[in-house]
Specification:
Shape: flat
Distance between the termini: 64 Å
Strand order of the largest sheet: 1-2-3-4
Number of strands: 4
Bound molecules: zinc ion
Largest sheet: 4 strands, antiparallel
Radius of gyration: 30 Å
Strand content: 15-25%
Structural class: alpha+beta
């Protein structure tokens, strides 16, 4: 049995009938509402609005992946993370104490104070590292299978934006998280600032 396509290319007589059929069927589609999908301004605007409201494939901190690998290393969690946090806190305490001591009692040369700056920055960095680790660990642990650094954002939808005078807008969002390990997913409401939203969109600031 030959298909209609073969018929139209094989004989001119048959193709006339086909043309008639095609026109009538296209009219049917148009009457059924096909005309709504055109390149009008409104359709494009709606598409744009949908694109910006929904963030599919949100960009999350690359540290989640890094920590996921690092936790598998021996001593990383038992010594390195608490060690860096404690060292950082000690460094900050000692340097602030020293500055306080110098300003109250002794008079240290300016050069001593400037050498202290890298120690303070380094200490703050160490504390920040530990804090980030704890935050991301908490955020990315799957409540179902208990695996860590796998429970990631799958989609973020901005439900509403509260515009504040002189302050940053609040984005009321719905976050869908999916476990990379067991597939468990959940939806939670979250309030975020514009920076967090930009980061999720992949526009790192
Ligand atoms: Zn899981």
């Amino acid at each position: 049995m030959a298909s209609t396509e073969d018929d139209s290319s094989a004989s001119g007589g048959a193709s006339n009938e086909n043309v008639g059929d095609n026109i009538s069927s296209m009219e049917g589609v148009a009457a059924g509402g096909f005309m709504i999908i055109d390149q009008s301004e409104t359709v494009n605007q709606q598409a744009e609005a949908n694109r910006t409201r929904k963030i599919t494939n949100p960009t999350q901190s690359m540290w989640i992946d890094v920590f996921g690998v690092l936790t598998k290393l021996p001593y990383f969690e038992s010594y390195l993370v608490p060690g860096s946090a404690v060292t950082g806190l000690l460094g900050l305490t000692v340097s602030f104490g020293w500055v306080l001591y110098q300003s109250q009692i002794a008079t240290a040369p300016i050069s001593d104070l400037t050498t202290l700056l890298p120690i303070m920055l380094g200490s703050a960095g160490l504390v920040g590292f530990g804090a980030l680790y704890l935050e991301l660990d908490d955020e990315s642990e799957c409540p179902e299978c208990g695996k860590r650094f796998v429970y990631l954002y799958d989609e973020v939808e901005i439900l509403d934006v509260t515009e504040l005078e002189g302050r940053e807008n609040i984005y009321h969002s719905e976050v869908t998280k999916v476990c990379e390990s067991c597939g468990h997913s959940s939806v939670e409401q979250k309030e975020m600032g514009p920076e967090a939203i930009d980061r999720l969109r992949g526009k790192s600031s």
